[in-house]
Design goal:
Layout: H1 8-14, E1 15-26, E2 32-42, H2 44-68, H3 75-103, E3 129-135, E4 138-144, H4 160-177, H5 185-214, H6 221-237, H7 241-252, E5 284-285, E6 294-295, H8 320-356, H9 369-376, H10 387-422, H11 426-456, H12 461-469, E7 472-478, H13 485-499, E8 504-509, E9 521-525, E10 528-535, H14 537-541, H15 545-548, E11 555-561, H16 566-574, H17 578-601, H18 616-627, H19 636-647, E12 651-655, H20 661-678, H21 686-694, E13 696-697, E14 703-704, H22 709-712, H23 734-752
Parallel strand pairs: 4-12, 7-11, 7-12, 8-10
Antiparallel strand pairs: 1-2, 2-3, 3-4, 5-6, 9-10, 13-14
Helix pairs in contact: 2-3, 2-11, 4-11, 5-6, 5-10, 6-8, 7-8, 7-10, 8-9, 8-10, 11-13, 17-18, 18-19, 20-21
Length: 753
């Protein structure tokens, strides 16, 4: 029985159909070393995409309900809303059909390259496999996968990078045609982020308020601190200018809104009574143990400053409705601050009374509990009641204010997303589907590599510290050319790898050691997915405290591409390789930034040691020089990037179009170089070792490339490849047609004799 890891249950649940080979090579001192090489399929090839599709369906379904909850809109906006909802319905229907087809699939746990054009398999990565070489006590892992790309949609018009750039430049004209406000991508992403934070924090604040009410007068500090922090985060999220502009836009889209712009400036009307004064003193939080009120610290997270929402100084006649809207929002916002201040003041006063026991507390006008409650109560003085009754009134008021703010902000931000969706054409719908498919392939590969690296480093305290303090480096090595269709594949892959930076991992404790209990679980939404990786209870308890508490783990993806085939030769001589150069430059900067943050956290001596004593800083300088040098097929870039990744405890991925020929050549060459540089492989036996790894005898006696996943993990009873002749030559002469028929007949007779 072959176990990919020391935990058999993980091997059977995540990795299966392992193929193992053992070699014996001669070293420089005429000794022999044993090398064990194994390749396995990964069940996450289908598990992760199916979970993602389900989340896509859930997210789009929720978006439809949210758009319907916007309330009554003017006829123009109501028609646009119906159009957007119909588009979401179309996406949901297609994703449901895809998920139904995927549920029917049985057999190998990977998608072969021959199926890359099938539409219902577009979310599945191509030939996702893990490969591990073990030499004595050293392990070298690499994940091989076909380039994440939308093969079923084709590359006639380019890949995601080009299509997204073109679509974004056209959205302004679309927004004008639909009478929408144009929001750039960073603004719509911010709207989604604020919407997610608000929807997440509002129920947490309500739950903490209920928990605080049930706590005793003594054991309330932790709950109160959490409530204060969550409330500050909540209000800080709503301080963005985008929320104000969204409130105004939604107000203008309501039925009955009339624009009364005049050519001459109207006389300045008096401010309405509800307008908050800009000279009002900022609210204070009673955060002193003795109950003294102190102003809230000046920080970005301060929700209680009077200047948190800037006030407009001049308004024309048509803007006064908007002023009233902002005033209403300001009043509710101020109520949140006052109620929170009252809760803190009350509990601190109770704590002071408990400490003083029967002693008479020193009273000042600001420290008397009745004065505290009266000064913060929106309804004036409160009749003396028991402390729990007073606290209940304040907490219910706080919960109500937070809920009202959340509802108003939620509707306004949803209106921003409605305008973005209305400005999208059918092409925008296809781009979203294409991006979803590419991201699904990339995330499946990432989850596979993360789990493989995590289990290999469970006993490495330095790696675990690096994991939760700096994040995990994942390096994608691409061998695609910058010619013809592979340009589009590389553009897809660039966006897919970049989107992985928004993913977070979290380690959880499995309920049991069964295979299904150890499968990763994906939660979240687009641009905010979290992958939960369960570990067996005994293993989980041995982790550092930060990991056991569920700290989100960052991912730092980098992509380096160097084309190596004959098409790249054509591109370098007659075409354009600027895409490859730009990708390598951009990702070198990301790699350099990760190294700086890593060295600020961990000493360089704590990182893995290799026989090659070259410092990582020197390797980075050499890599930077190679990236900036004009050189054809500079594979030194890939070799240096891979070496740096291993030195910094990263995860390596190797990709080409189908993860077969070029990928297997790259992986086997890297393995032999590691044996030569790290384990004293005799240089005279280097070529022999390389040939040995690239070919082998199977039980049928047939010579195959076992590094080809499609021939290493599946039965070999595949039909022989068909031979095609250039039909264009047959049009030159009828004599050639006769010759072609004779040669074909001879070939068929020889084949079946």
């Amino acid at each position: 029985t072959l176990y990919v890891f020391n935990t058999p249950s993980l091997s059977f649940s995540v990795f299966k159909n392992a193929v193992c080979k053992v070699y014996r090579f001669q070293t420089v001192d005429s000794k022999w070393m044993l090398v064990r090489e194994q390749m396995a399929e990964c069940t996450l090839s289908f598990s992760v995409p199916k979970q993602l599709i389900g989340l896509y369906i859930q997210e789009d379904t929720n978006r439809i309900h949210e758009l319907k909850d916007l309330g009554e809109l003017s006829p123009h906006w109501d028609n646009l809303r119906k159009d957007v909802i119909s588009r979401y319905d179309q996406i949901i229907k297609e994703y449901q059909d895809t998920l139904t087809e995927l549920e029917k699939i049985t057999g190998p746990s990977f998608k072969p390259s021959t199926s890359k054009g099938q539409r219902f398999l577009e979310f599945i990565p191509i030939n996702l496999h893990t490969q591990r070489m073990r030499v004595t006590y050293s392990c070298y892992d690499v994940v091989t996968v076909g380039a994440p790309a939308a093969h079923s949609q084709g590359f006639k018009n380019g890949g995601l990078q080009k299509l997204l750039s073109k679509h974004e430049s056209e959205k302004k004209s679309y927004s004008t045609a639909y009478q929408c406000i144009y929001y750039p991508p960073e603004q719509t992403a911010k709207a989604r982020e604020i919407l997610s934070v608000v929807c997440e924090l509002q129920p947490e604040i309500s739950a903490l308020a209920d928990e605080l009410l049930q706590s005793s007068k003594v054991n309330f500090r932790n709950t109160l601190q959490n409530l204060e922090e969550k409330t500050e985060q909540f209000v800080h999220a709503l301080k963005d200018e985008l929320v104000k502009s969204a409130l105004l836009a939604l107000h203008a889209a309501r039925p009955g809104y009339v624009c009364r712009s005049q050519t001459s400036a109207p006389p300045s009307p008096a401010k309405p009574d509800s307008m908050p004064s800009t000279t009002e003193e900022p609210p204070t939080i009673c955060n002193n143990v003795n109950g003294a009120q102190t102003p809230l610290r000046e920080s970005k997270t301060s929700p209680l400053r009077s200047d948190s929402i800037p006030h407009h100084k001049e308004y024309d006649e048509e803007e006064w409705a908007s002023v009233s809207l902002f005033c209403m929002f300001d009043r509710v916002w101020a109520s949140v601050a006052k109620n929170l201040n009252s809760v803190i003041a009350l509990l601190e006063k109770l704590h002071e009374q408990e400490n003083n026991n029967n002693q008479e507390p020193t009273t000042t006008p600001q420290h008397i509990l009745a004065d505290v409650i009266t000064s913060h109560s929106p309804d004036g003085p409160v009749a003396p009641v028991d402390w729990r009754g007073q606290l209940s009134v304040l907490l219910e008021s706080l919960k109500g204010c937070v809920l009202e703010v959340a509802q108003r902000a939620r509707r306004s931000l949803l209106f921003v997303l409605l305008q973005e969706a209305a400005g999208n054409t059918a092409q925008g719908l296809q781009l979203q589907q294409r991006r979803d498919a590419v991201f699904s392939q990339a995330l499946a590969a990432l989850a596979c590599g993360f789990i493989m690296r995590l289990y290999a480093g469970l006993e490495d305290k330095v790696f675990l510290k690096q994991l939760h303090e700096v994040g995990l480096l994942v390096q994608f090595e691409s061998l695609l050319s910058t010619y013809s269709e592979e340009i589009g594949m590389l553009e897809d892959m660039e966006v897919g790898v970049s989107d992985l930076s928004t993913v977070r991992f979290r380690i959880t404790e499995a309920q049991s050691e069964d295979g299904d209990a150890l499968m990763p679980l994906i939660t979240g939404r687009r641009e905010r997915f979290t992958v939960e990786v369960p570990l067996p209870p005994q293993t989980f308890q041995a982790l550092p405290e930060e990991l056991r508490h569920g700290k989100p783990l960052r991912i730092i993806p980098v992509l380096f591409n160097v084309g190596i085939n004959e098409q790249q030769t054509i591109a370098e001589r007659f075409g354009d390789i600027s895409l490859q150069e730009r990708i390598n430059h951009k990702n070198f900067e990301s790699l350099e930034a990760y190294y700086k943050s890593l060295t600020n956290t961990l000493p360089s001596e704590a990182l893995p040691s290799f026989q090659t004593q070259t410092d990582i800083k020197d390797l980075l300088e050499t890599l930077g020089h190679n990236v900036g040098t004009k050189k054809r097929k500079n594979v030194e870039i890939l070799w240096l990037a891979g070496m740096i990744c291993r030195r910094m405890n990263g995860v390596r991925f190797t990709s080409c179009k189908s993860a077969k020929d070029r990928t297997s050549m790259s992986v086997t060459l890297e393995q032999c170089c590691l044996l030569r540089d790290e384990h004293q492989l005799n240089k005279d036996h280097f070529i022999r070792a390389l040939d040995c790894m690239r070919s082998g005898r199977l039980s049928q006696g047939e010579l195959v490339q076992w590094d080809d996943p499609e021939s290493g993990s599946v039965a070999l009873n595949k039909p022989a490849s068909r031979h095609f002749y250039p039909i264009a030559l047959l049009l030159v002469s009828s004599h050639l047609l006769v010759v072609w028929l004779i040669l074909s007949l001879v070939f068929l007779l020889a084949k079946y004799q």
